[in-house]
Every structure is written in structure tokens, then in C-alpha cells.
Design goal:
globular; Rossmann fold; alpha/beta; 176 residues
């Protein structure tokens, strides 16, 4: 029996959108298990980070279930920032199951993990102009259609927790 290959994919997922989902599907075609690390876990209720780590973890789980992705193939972990790049990888490793590959398109994350001996692979982006958390948040704030950018279960979840209203309220407070 061969050893399982477990990888790490880190993001803020503010909110989780269809581009994230496509990345996860692609990665799971290459590895046996995936740790999905919800970064900047301590931040919420701001324009850039409107959702809590728990809400983001729920969004991810709902979207993966909706797409029939076996729960035995993924872990979802919240990773708070530490503010010091030199210890960040050790901090992250202390909060996650072991992994051997990191998937990222962030050059700093790539450098930090490579310096710590990890294999790093880039992820093809899926229509990045359209599928970005920044675009989802912009559309929500502007009352433009946004639901098409996220999996249906995520759109429902955001509406159920009134996350769309929260974001619009945060925007109003930010411009006053």
C-alpha cells in the first residue's frame, strides 16, 4: 500500500467562490487528501474580511458536500496570522495534520514554504477577473448579482446569516 499524499491549500476565502472550488477539485485530482487552511482566521466584520473563520469553514464544507467531494479527502483548519514571516510556517504546521506539498499562487507563501523544505505547486486560476472574493464582495456591496460567482450552497448560507447585509452595513460605516 502506497503512502497517501496530503497537500495544503491556504486562502482567506472571504467568501468561498467557484474559483476556489475549481482549485480544490484540481488539487484533489493530484493528491489523496487536502488540508484547506482558512488563513487570517482572527479577522472578521471588516470590508476585506467580512466573514468569521467559522463561517468560512461552513461555506467550504457546504460547497464540497454539494459537489459530492468525499469528506475523508479533506480537512478544514483555521489558521490565525502571527505577524512574523520567519515563524509563520512553523505556526501553521503546529495547527495542521502533516502535509508534503503546498499549493499556492502567492509568492511570499511560496518562498516561506520552499525555505522550509516543502514542494510548492502553482494552481491554475479560473477566470480570475470574475472569480475573486474581491469581486464577490464588490458586487454584494453594489447590489449587483453575485450569487453566480459562488456555489449555490454558499449563496444560501451567506443570505441565511445575513452576510450580504453585514457587508453593505460595513461599507456604509466605512464611507461615513
Amino acid at each position: 500500500m502506497k503512502n497517501k499524499v496530503r497537500a495544503l491549500y491556504i486562502g482567506k476565502f472571504q467568501p468561498f467562490h467557484k474559483g476556489h472550488l475549481e482549485c480544490i477539485k484540481k488539487i484533489l485530482n493530484e493528491v489523496d487528501e487536502l488540508i484547506i487552511a482558512v488563513g487570517s482566521a482572527q479577522y472578521s466584520h471588516t470590508l476585506e474580511n467580512p466573514f468569521t473563520a467559522g463561517e468560512r469553514m461552513d461555506m467550504i464544507r457546504l460547497a464540497l458536500e454539494e459537489n459530492s467531494i468525499d469528506a475523508k479527502k479533506f480537512w478544514i483548519v483555521a489558521i490565525p496570522d502571527v505577524g512574523t514571516h520567519s515563524i509563520w510556517v512553523a505556526h501553521l504546521k503546529s495547527l495542521c495534520p502533516s502535509f508534503s506539498i503546498v499549493y499556492t499562487n502567492n509568492s511570499l507563501v511560496k518562498i516561506l514554504f520552499e525555505e522550509n523544505g516543502f514542494k510548492v505547486r502553482e494552481i491554475p486560476l479560473f477566470d480570475r477577473k470574475k472569480f475573486s472574493a474581491t469581486e464577490v464582495r464588490r458586487r454584494i456591496i453594489s447590489n449587483e448579482p453575485w450569487e453566480e460567482l459562488v456555489p449555490p450552497s454558499v449563496a444560501k448560507f451567506i443570505k441565511d446569516i445575513k452576510g450580504d447585509q453585514r457587508l453593505r452595513e460595513l461599507f456604509k460605516k466605512d464611507i461615513v
